[in-house]
Structures
1.
Amino acid sequence: MKKIIGAIVVLIPIVFLAACGTSGGILGAGENELKLAHNQSLDHPVHKSLAEFGRLVEEKSDGEISVNIYANGQLGSEREAIELTQTGAVDLAKVSASALESFESDYSIFSVPYVFEDYQQFEEAMSNKEVTDRLYLQTEEIGFRALTYYNAGERNLYTKNREVKDVSDMNGLKVRVQPSQTSVGMIEAFGGVPTSMAYGEVYTALQAGVIDAAENNETALVNNNHGEVAKYYMYTEHQIVPDMLIMNSARFDRFSDEEQEIIMEAAEESTIYHEDVWEQTIKENTEIAKNEMNVQFVEVDKDSFIDSVQEMHKEFAESEKTGEIYDLLKGAIE
C-alpha cells in the first residue's frame, strides 16, 4: 500500500503538467486561449498592464485570441512559471529579469548595480532594437522568447532603524537580496552582509531583526506593509530590473504572421500603458508611506555607491558570457 501511495504522489505533478500543456487541459485553454502566469496581486500595476495586454489582444484579433491570467503565483514561483512556459504548460509568464539569469546570462546585466545611472539611460537602452532583439530572441532555443518589458521601478535600500547617507554607512548592514549572485556581490561591494530569503519573509525578518534592511521599489512599503517596520527609505537607485513578458516559442510560431503582429503590438502598447500606471502608483505609495507610515525618504551620496562597484563592471565587461551584452547596452546609452 505504501508503494502504491508513493507512486500516486509522484505521478500527480506529472499528470498536472501534462494536462496543462494540452489544449482544453485542466486550465481550460482552447486553441486560441493563451494562459498567462504571474506572481503579483490583482491590484498591482503590472497586473493591470497585463490585463490591458489581454484586452488589446482580444480587441485586435476581433475576439479570436484571448488571454486568461493566473495571478498571485497560482501556478507557482517565478522560476516555476519560466519552466512551465518552456514546456508549453502555460503560454506566457511575467517574471523579473533577475529570475531569468539562471536561464540566460544576458539577463544578469540588469542586476549589475548602476549599469544604468538613471531611468533615462534605461529607456535609451530598452528603445534600442539591437539591444531588445538580442535579449528577446536569445532564449528561443531553450523554449521561450520575450515580447516586451514592464517598468518595475528603481530599486532602493530601506532599513528598519538606520539612516544611510553614503556607502560607508552600509558597513555590516544585513540586507535581504534576491536569489541573484550579482545582487549578492553588489551588497558585498557596498560593505553590507547579503541575506537571501523569500520575499514573503521580509516583513517578519525586518520586524524580528533577522535582517536590518531590504531593497526594492516604493510599492514594497505599502503593498507589502514593509513601511510598518522599515522607517528609512534611501534613494540609492542601485538597480533598474524590469519585469519581462515571455512566451513559449513553439506557441508563438504556431500563430500566423498577422496574429504574431497582433500579439507583439498588444505587448508594446501595454508597456506604454504601464508607464502611466506605474508613475501614478509610485506617487500614491510614496505619499501613503510618508504620511501614514512615517517613513523618512533620504537622498544619498550616489557617487560613493557607484565608485564601490566599478570592479563588478570590469568583471562583466571582460567576461566571455556577459561582455558582449555589456558593451551593446553601454553603446546604446552612449
2.
Amino acid sequence: MVDVGEVASAVLPYLSAVAGAYGSAVVQRVSDGAADATADATLGAGRRLARRLFGSSRSSQVQSALVDLAGRPGDEGLADVLRAQVRAALAADLSLLADVVQLLRAAGGKFEVSVSNSQGVQVGDGNTQTNTFNAPPR
C-alpha cells in the first residue's frame, strides 16, 4: 500500500524546484507544452508532476499553493501548505496517485529511498550528516 503522505512529501522537492526556477510565472511555464531547453532533470520531472497535478479535481488549490511558494521560495509554511494540497489531491484520486508514483519512479534517477520510523535522512552524493539522538546533557 502506498502512503499518500510519503508520496506528497516526495513530490515537494520537485515542485519547489519548479517554483524557485519559474517564480510567479510557474503555472504558465508548467502548463506550456514546449520543453524548456535549459531545464535539468529535476525541473523536467517537476514540470511533469505539476502538469499531472494540474489535471486533478483539486487543481486550483494545488496551483494556488504553488504560486504562493513561488512568491516566497524557501518558506517552510508555504511548502507545508503545498504538501497538504498535494496530499489532498492524491487522497481524492487513486488514479492520480498511481500516475504520480510512476512519475516519481521515472524521475528517481540513481537514488531510491524507503524510510520508516526515521529521525533523520539525507540522500545524495558527497554529503555529510551528523545526528545525535538522546544525547546526555552536557
3.
Amino acid sequence: MIYIDNRQDKIEVTNKLVEKVEEIINYALKEEEVHISTEVSVIFIDNENIRELNKEQRNIERVTDVLSFPMLDYSEGQVYKEVYEHNNFHDADLHEGQLILGDIVLSLERAKEQSEEYGHSFMREVCYLTVHSVLHLLGYDHMIDEDKIRMRKREEEILENFNITRN
C-alpha cells in the first residue's frame, strides 16, 4: 500500500504524477525482490518545510530534495534482499500483515528547480528522487564511495528498465 499525502501548494500534483510515483515505487520494490505486501508513505512538501525537517532530523539547516525515514534496521552495508530474503520479520515490522518500509518526504519545489538545473523533465526528477528514497528505505546508502557507487548503479538500472532517461 502506498499512501501519498500532498502537503504543499506550490507545484500541481496531477493524477499522472501520483500514478507514476506509485508505479515506480512498485517497480523498484519488485526489482529489489520485496515479495511481501508493504506500506510506504510519500509526503510532498515545499522547500521551507523540508528545510525545517532537515534541520530537525539531521541538524542541517538547508533545503534538500528528499528525506527518507526507513523503519527497518540494516547492518552497515546490508540491503533488504540480503537481510530479509526469507521474510524473517519481527511482529513490530508488520501492520495488519503489511511490512512497514517507511516514509519518503519529497520537496516538489526542489524537484522542479533541479529538473530545470539538470535539463531533464520534472517527472524524471521526481521518479529519480523516489527511487533514490525507496532504495534508502531498503538499506542502501551513499556515505562512503563503495556504497555510493552501488546505490547510483542500482538507481540507474531501475530507471533505465523503467524507461526513464535524463532527457
